[in-house]
Write a structure and sequence with these properties.
The protein is built from 10 helices and 10 strands. The chain is α/β, with parallel strands linked by helices and about 260 residues long. Helix 8 (about 190-210) packs antiparallel against helix 9. It binds nicotinamide-adenine-dinucleotide (NAD). Nicotinamide-adenine-dinucleotide binds near residues 82 and 133.
Length: about 260
C-alpha cells in the first residue's frame, strides 16, 4: 500500500519484530498447530510423512515439533535459501508435486494462496489429511477439492471427508482455516505476551512520535524489541551477562585481535 501511495497513516510492522515472529510464529504456531491437528483427528504422528509447506518461522516451528513427535518431515518451499536451510536442518526437501504422492499429512504455513491445488489433490494417497495454519482459508484450494469430489461429509468436528471420483478420500481439517485456532486454543499467553507487548509499546511510540512519521511502514524500533526481550527474561527469572567496557571496545574495534 505504501508503494502504491494508498497507505492512509504510518504503520508499525509488529510481525517483523524479533520478539514477535521468532517466538509467536515459531514456538506458538509450531506447538498450537500440532495441538489443533491432534484435537481434530487424534492421529498418531509418529511414522507419518508430514509435509510442511513453507519453511518460514511458522513452518520451522511446526517441522521441528512434528519431527520430535516421530514424523518423517518433508518441507516444500519456493525460496531457495529457506529450502537449503530445511535440507541442512535435516528434512527431506522436494517439490509439492512430489510430496503430494507420499504425504500423509499436509500443512500449509505460507501466507500464500492456492498452494495446495487440483494437481496435488489428484496425486494424494487415499486418507491424506490436509490443514492450514498460515493466513486465510485460501492456502488450500478448496473449490478445486470440491470440484474433484463426488461426495463430502463431516465425519467429526473440524474433519470433512471428501470422496473423489476415483473413490480416494481426502480429509480437510477446520474448513482450511487456521487449524490452531479452529480446533485448538491458539498460542499460549506465555508467548503472546511478547506480541502484545510489541503492539502496546508501538502504540506508545506512535503517541510520542507518530505525528512526525510519513505514511510508510516502519519497523518496531530496536530499543523496544530489545526491551521486550529483557522484560521477558526478567519475568522468567533469568539473568544474563553484560559486556565489559573492554569487550565492547574490542568487539567494535579493528586494531586488536586480527
Ligand atoms: N496460525 C497462526 O496462529 C499464525 C501465527 C503467526 C503467523 N501466521 C501466519 O503464517 C504465515 C507464515 O508466517 P511466517 O512467519 O512463517 O512467514 P514467513 O514469510 O517467514 O514464511 C512463509 C514461507 O512460505 C514460503 N512460501 C510462500 N509461498 C509458497 C508456496 N507457494 N509454496 C511453498 N512455500 C511458499 C515463503 O518462501 C516463506 O519462506 C503468515 O501468513 C502468517 O500471517 C499464523
Amino acid at each position: 500500500m505504501a508503494k502504491d501511495k494508498v497507505l492512509a497513516y504510518p504503520i508499525i510492522a509488529v510481525n517483523d519484530a524479533n520478539t514477535k515472529h521468532l517466538f509467536d510464529n515459531r514456538y506458538g504456531t509450531g506447538q498450537s498447530t500440532v495441538d489443533g491437528i491432534l484435537r481434530a483427528t487424534n492421529i498418531l504422528i509418529s511414522g507419518l510423512n508430514f509435509v510442511v509447506v513453507g519453511y518460514g518461522w511458522c513452518g520451522r516451528g511446526l517441522a521441528i515439533r512434528a519431527k520430535g513427535a516421530g514424523a518423517k518431515v518433508i518441507v516444500c518451499e519456493v525460496d531457495p535459501l529457506r529450502a537449503l536451510e530445511a535440507v541442512m536442518d535435516g528434512y527431506q526437501v522436494m517439490s509439492l508435486k512430489e510430496a503430494a504422492k507420499i504425504g500423509d499429512v499436509f500443512v500449509t504455513v505460507t501466507g500464500d494462496k492456492n498452494v495446495i491445488t487440483k494437481s496435488h489433490f489428484q496425486k494424494m494417497k487415499d486418507g491424506a489429511i490436509v490443514a492450514n495454519s498460515g493466513h486465510f482459508n485460501v492456502e488450500i484450494d478448496i473449490p478445486s477439492l470440491e470440484a474433484l469430489s463426488q461426495k463430502k461429509r463431516k465425519i467429526k468436528e473440524f474433519v470433512e471427508e471428501y470422496t473423489l471420483d476415483d473413490g480416494r478420500k481426502i480429509f480437510l481439517l477446520g474448513e482450511g482455516r487456521l487449524i490452531n485456532l479452529a480446533a485448538a486454543e491458539g498460542h499460549p499467553a506465555v508467548v503472546m505476551d511478547m506480541s502484545f507487548a510489541n503492539q502496546a509499546m508501538s502504540v506508545l511510540f506512535l503517541l510520542d512520535k507518530g505525528k512526525k512519521l510519513e505514511k510508510q511502514v516502519y519497523p518496531v524500533p530496536k530499543e523496544i524489541d530489545d526491551e521486550i526481550a529483557r522484560m521477558k527474561l526478567k519475568t522468567m527469572g533469568i539473568s544474563i551477562d553484560k559486556l565489559t567496557a573492554e569487550q565492547r571496545k574490542y568487539l567494535a574495534g579493528w586494531e586488536e585481535g586480527t
